[in-house]
Design goal:
Elements: E1 4-8, H1 13-22, E2 26-30, H2 41-50, E3 56-61, H3 66-75, E4 80-83, H4 89-92, E5 99-105, H5 111-117, E6 123-128, E7 154-156, H6 165-172, E8 176-179, E9 184-186, E10 189-190, H7 192-207
Parallel strand pairs: 1-2, 1-8, 2-3, 3-4, 4-5, 5-6, 6-7, 7-8
Antiparallel strand pairs: 9-10
Bound molecules: the ligand O=C(O)c1ccccc1NCC(=O)[C@H](O)[C@H](O)COP(=O)(O)O.
Protein name: N-(5'-phosphoribosyl)anthranilate isomerase
Keywords: Amino-acid biosynthesis, Aromatic amino acid biosynthesis, Isomerase, Tryptophan biosynthesis
Domain N-(5'phosphoribosyl) anthranilate isomerase (PRAI): 5-201
């Protein structure tokens, strides 16, 4: 099975359209006001309307109030929610929408226990722990922390780009790769060349 690709943190229509035509499977929209990649609903709507068919839209939240999440779901055609904070399984599953649970990877992170707790998630997104940032750090974590047997599909994130995508696929064998900083020219601005190079590296990784 080929490795799926999600690119997170689009703020501009043209960047998302380019990524879609380059072959990305999912685009992530950050609804977290402290992030430099945060999008307002009207901005997100423009991005989503410009996308071709069969590209999934993932809405990312960090410990957001239920009303904010419901408002995004009311106004936008969201395929999947991504919870990037300390949301409980009950909080993640209350929207009747598929969800991904992000996990900040540390030495004692128990993936099996988390997979049991979030058993109805469509995947666990494993990201780099940072004491001061919730995500989008551009830093890789120690992939040896990931068990060989994955109880849920693994979406690998954290400091991925065209230079390490192939090794990531060979080492972790994830369901998908997720990148943000590594395909940017500035925060929230995706670089078309870096996006294309990332997708090419993944295609190459899948074949080798
Ligand atoms: O991107 C952000 O600014 C962000 C802020 C707060 C929580 C999560 C955030 N991004 C989540 C993602 O899915 C990123 O793609 C993931 O953290 C990997 O980022 P990077 O290491 O920059 O590739």
């Amino acid at each position: 099975m080929r490795t799926r690709v999600k690119i997170c943190g689009f703020t501009r229509v043209e960047d998302a359209v380019h990524a879609a035509h380059a072959g990305v499977d999912a685009i992530g929209l950050v609804f977290y006001p402290p992030s430099p990649r945060h999008v307002a609903i009207h901005q997100a709507l423009q991005i989503v309307r410009a996308l071709p068919a069969f590209v999934s839209v993932v809405a990312l939240f960090v410990d957001a109030p239920e009303t904010s999440i419901r408002e995004v779901l009311r106004q936008l055609p969201i395929d999947c929610l991504q919870f990037h904070g300390n949301e409980s399984a009950e909080a993640c599953r209350m929207y009747n929408t598929r969800y991904i649970k992000a996990v900040s990877m540390q030495a004692d992170t128990d993936i099996s226990a988390l997979a049991t707790h979030y058993h109805d998630a469509t995947g666990l997104l494993l990201d780099t722990y940072h004491p001061a940032a919730k995500g989008g750090t551009g830093h890789q974590f120690d992939w040896s922390l990931i068990p060989k047997q994955h109880p849920l599909p693994i979406i690998l994130a954290g400091g991925l780009d065209s230079t390490n995508a192939r090794l990531a696929i060979q080492t972790v064998k994830p369901y998908a790769l997720d990148a943000s900083s590594g395909v940017e020219s500035a925060k929230g601005i995706k670089d078309p060349l870096k996006v294309s190079a990332f997708l090419q590296a993944i295609n190459y990784g899948d074949k080798s």
